[in-house]
Amino acid sequence: MRGRSFFLSMFGFLFFVSTLATAQVPVMTAEQVHSWLDSKRAFLLIDARPAEEYRQAHIPGAINIPADRMKADAERLPKVKSTPIIFYCRGEG
């Protein structure tokens, strides 16, 4: 019984944390990103796909930081923390 209670508590905590994290990361549509590009608004556009896919095609102005290199390439992120960052890749998640 104690193990079940622990499992349910952990599940609830992880669900809460994942819900909180998701709520803080808005998802933009392609039309919204296009609008930002047209407006010349200041933001950073990051293509999180592998480098080979980036070389084949990417949105003009995007920089390539593959998801597995994000921590190593953190110096390429804006120093001003209020600068919006838009990530895109080939799929959801």
CATH architecture of the domain at 42-93: 3-Layer(aba) Sandwich
Give the SSE string.
HHEHEE
Radius of gyration: 18 Å
**Helix-residue proportion:** 40-55%
Strands in their spatial order, largest beta sheet: 2-1-3
Distance between the termini: 35 Å
Class computed from helices, strands and strand pairing:
alpha/beta
Number of helices: 3
Description:
This protein has 93 residues and is α/β, with parallel strands linked by helices. The chain has a domain at 42-93: Rhodanese-like domain (Oxidized Rhodanese, domain 1). The chain has helices at 2-23, 30-39, 51-56, and strands at residues 44-47, 63-64, 85-88. The protein has a three-stranded parallel beta sheet, with no helix packed on it. Strand 1, helix 3 (51-56) and strand 2 (63-64) form a beta-alpha-beta unit. It starts with a helix and ends in a 5-residue tail after the last strand. The model is unreliable at 1-21 (pLDDT under 50).
Give a brief outline of the structure.
The chain has 93 residues and is of the alpha/beta class. The protein has helices at residues 2-23, 30-39, 51-56; strands spanning 44-47, 63-64, 85-88.
Tell me the layout of helices and strands.
Elements lengths: L1 H22 L6 H10 L4 E4 L3 H6 L6 E2 L20 E4 L5
Parallel strand pairs: 1-2, 1-3
Supply database-style keywords:
single chain, 93 residues, alpha/beta, Oxidized Rhodanese, domain 1, 3-stranded parallel β-sheet, disordered N terminus
